[in-house]
TrEMBL record:
It is an enzyme of class 2 (transferase). Keywords: ATP-binding, Kinase, Membrane, Nucleotide-binding, Phosphoprotein, Transferase, Transmembrane, Transmembrane helix, Two-component regulatory system. The chain crosses the membrane at residues 6-26, 159-183. This is histidine kinase. The lineage of its organism: Bacteria, Pseudomonadati, Pseudomonadota, Alphaproteobacteria, Hyphomicrobiales. It comes from the Bacteria. Residues 249-457 form the Histidine kinase domain. The keyword Nucleus does not apply. Gene3D superfamilies: 1.10.287.130, Histidine kinase-like ATPase, C-terminal domain. It catalyses: ATP + protein L-histidine = ADP + protein N-phospho-L-histidine. GO terms for molecular function: ATP binding; phosphorelay sensor kinase activity. Its EC number is 2.7.13.3.
Length: 461
């Protein structure tokens, strides 16, 4: 793959190996130069012993030139006390351009001197000073740096070739190791991710993690867990889509049936019998709510809950209507409305009615499924402050299992007792639309929900 991870790793490996070789080369070339110069001085000290011991003028000129050639110098000088003695020299003592004292040469200066010699222009005559034999103060030689420079370039070329060989060999080993340990597993993970993207609903698309215990193995296991969660979410969403389509069809037909029932109820409202006159307003109200709910259900697949149309609502009366719709009153379980007669909330009455109808239905089902010994009861209360209204609904039923509390307001998370699992999700959406919150509060017995609404809400939060 062009520009892939493996190519980048190979380039970086070669680069860092070459960088390491350069860092090794810098002190190496300096030490090589010092070694070469020390060899010249060592040969000069030996020659100085011979030349200094011989009587002056008795050393043949040919032997003197041969000694200079062996030392690689043009002149050998010995300093003893205040006297400097020229022990040997070529035809004419050359002019020295630079003198290096190797007795106290620092490492940093030696590095700069080495590169100055290596990249110098043309042959130069240099002087070298080192320790003298016997009681002499120092020995000095005068030489050309031409041969030294050529030798240093040969050494550098050998180092370069060796560095290239080591770099290629090391880079190949590192590259193959990284390819096997990291790049190949990452390619496999990438391929499995792309396969999952093409068919996320297929169980075979979920990757099978390896037995590795390192970060790659951890990534594989976490990816598998994430793929399972995504697949589960897709199944739920597909189920929701199918359910929504079915509910829309049912709601469409139910709306037509309810429209007919509304016509009949309108005719019954004209009957003068007292019981009919007392019950028909609630019947008509229930039918109207059912028709409105069917219309909202038909629009559910196209949008979320419609924005609330808030107004001041007599809350005690609304709770009484909820209790009547649930068939409660003097029967079981007890429906205890503790809301003050004059208490109002600023909310959409239809949406608020639906929210408490869902909460009440859940409580009734729980109490009838597991009746408490002292009798079941559902209690609704309300308290207000300057900024909010807090409404509580409590029952003394079996309570909500701990395993579903974290996902209580998600679709299908809290289904039970023949419920669809959508009731609390709908309640949470309706309350959020008013800018409020619904929470499950700790309670020693049964279930306690608290709904907090702003003191005055003008729309969806």
């Amino acid at each position: 793959m062009q520009g892939g991870l493996s190519a980048k790793l190979l380039i970086l490996t070669i680069f860092f190996v070459l960088l390491a070789e350069i860092l090794i080369y810098i002190p190496s070339i300096s030490n090589y130069r010092l070694t070469q110069l020390q060899d010249h001085l060592s040969a000069a000290r030996t020659a100085a012993l011979v030349l200094d011991a011989a009587p002056e003028g008795l050393v043949p000129r040919a032997l003197e030139l041969q000694i200079l050639q062996q030392v690689g110098a043009r002149a050998i000088i010995l300093k003893r006390g205040n006297a400097r003695r020229l022990l040997a020299f070529s035809d004419m003592p050359p002019t020295v351009s630079t003198t290096f004292d190797l007795r106290d040469a620092s490492r940093i200066k030696s590095v700069f001197d080495a590169f100055a010699t290596l990249f110098g222009t043309g042959p130069q005559i240099i002087g070298l000073i080192g320790d003298a034999p016997r009681e002499g103060e120092f020995v000095e030689i005068v030489m050309s740096d031409e041969e030294l420079r050529a030798s240093m370039w040969r050494f550098s070329l050998n180092i370069l070739l060796l560095s290239l060989v080591i770099s290629i060999f090391t880079a190949a080993l590192v590259y193959l190791s990284l390819l096997a340990l990291f790049v190949k597993p990452m390619r496999e993970i990438s391929a499995k991710i792309m396969a999952f993207r093409e068919a996320p609903e297929e169980p075979s698309a979920i990757m099978a993690p390896s037995d590795r215990q390192d970060e790659i193995g951890l990534a594989e296991r976490e990816l598998r867990r994430m793929q399972r969660q995504i697949q589960t979410a897709l199944v739920q969403k597909t189920h929701l889509a199918a359910l929504g389509l079915a509910v829309s069809k049912i709601s469409h037909d139910l709306r037509n049936i309810l429209a007919s029932a509304q016509l009949f109820s309108d005719r019954l409202s004209s009957v003068s019998e007292p019981t009919v006159q007392r019950l028909m307003p609630r019947v008509i109200g229930s039918i109207n709510r059912a028709i409105a709910l069917c219309q909202s259900t038909l629009a559910y697949g196209r949008a979320a809950e419609p924005a609330p149309n808030p107004r001041h609502v007599r809350f005690k009366m609304l709770i009484d209507d909820v209790g009547a719709a649930l068939g409660l009153g003097e029967g079981y379980p007890a429906w205890i409305n503790e809301v003050d007669d004059k208490a109002t909330v600023f909310a959409d009455p239809e949406q608020l009615y639906r929210a408490f109808l869902n909460l009440g239905r859940n409580a009734v089902e729980a109490l009838r499924a597991q009746p408490p010994r002292n009798g079941g009861a559902i209690r609704i209360a309300m308290r207000a402050s300057e900024t909010s209204v807090i409404i509580s609904m409590a029952d003394n039923g079996p309570g909500i299992p701990a395993k579903v509390r974290d996902k209580l307001f998600q679709p299908f998370a809290a289904s039970g007792n023949k419920g669809s699992g959508l009731g609390l999700a709908i309640v949470a959406e309706l309350i959020r639309g008013h800018g409020g919150t619904i929470t499950l509060q700790p309670s020693p017995v049964g279930t306690l929900f608290e709904i907090e609404l702003p003191a005055q809400t003008t729309g969806r939060a």
